[in-house]
Specification:
By secondary structure, this protein is an all-alpha fold. The chain is 80% helix and 0% strand. The protein has 10 helices and no strands. The protein is globular and about 50 Å long. 27% of the residues are buried. The model has no long low-confidence stretch (mean pLDDT 90).
């Protein structure tokens, strides 16, 4: 009963209120990242809370507005078109990660990369939903902000979220420049999320010499 009332309350919110709520909620999520990742070192807890909250929100929104799912970019009808656009960028990024890692002598690929390559794309889709659909998408809906400004704003925000590692800030900023442009042209979160996850995993094990598997699951294994 209580869940149903919450669903109805969200459904009756105006479009403007939805946009405001979503931008505020994304901002709170970003602050939570810094708290749980950088201060408390509770990364798995943050990821589970993040998935729990946003999956509930998505469920509540599409309960009475199923068209939102496709509008946000959870769609496959344009998958091949977006894949053809993103694939060359992904190949260049892949080669760049290996080249930088080789130059820095920071390539440290272990079996840990396998579960990360499986799990991180799922997390990547959620991140792209927050940044692309709820930030870039909502800014685009305003019709008062030019596409170039949306791309810059979104990319700066995405880069800041990965502070204080400057390699990650730079890498995600460049990634978001291309991703935001692609999203505004053809909304597809699956392609962007999968590539985000795979490139992000490779970036960790080559350029920044970090092991996200240990950072997230180290207290278990």
């Amino acid at each position: 009963m209580r869940f149903s009332l919450i669903c109805d309350a969200i459904s009756y919110m105006s479009s403007q209120n939805h946009r405001s709520f979503e931008i505020v909620a994304v901002s709170v999520t970003a602050l939570g990242k810094f708290l749980f990742y950088d201060v408390l070192n509770l990364r798995l807890v943050f990821i589970l809370l993040m998935f729990g909250f946003w999956s509930t929100y998505i469920t509540m929104r599409v309960r009475n507005h199923s068209e939102l799912f496709k509008k946000w970019g959870f769609r496959v009808d344009n998958f091949n078109r977006v894949l053809r656009r993103v694939l060359p960028f992904g190949i260049v990024s892949f080669m760049a990660c290996l080249s930088i890692g080789y130059y820095q002598d920071t390539i440290n690929i272990t079996w840990h990369i396998i579960p990360i390559l499986i799990l991180y794309p799922v997390f990547g889709v959620l991140q792209q939903f927050l940044i692309m659909a709820l930030v870039a998408g909502n800014l685009q809906e305003l019709n008062r902000i030019k596409a170039q400004s949306i791309i810059i704003i979104t990319s700066i925000l995405f880069g800041i979220l990965h502070y204080p590692d400057w390699w990650l800030v730079l890498g995600t900023f460049i990634l978001a420049l291309f991703y935001t442009y692609t999203y505004l042209k053809n909304r597809n979160l699956y392609v962007l999320g999968f590539f985000h996850g795979w490139l992000g995993a490779l970036f960790y094990y080559t350029v920044v010499d970090k092991d996200p598997f240990t950072e997230i699951f180290g207290f278990i294994f």
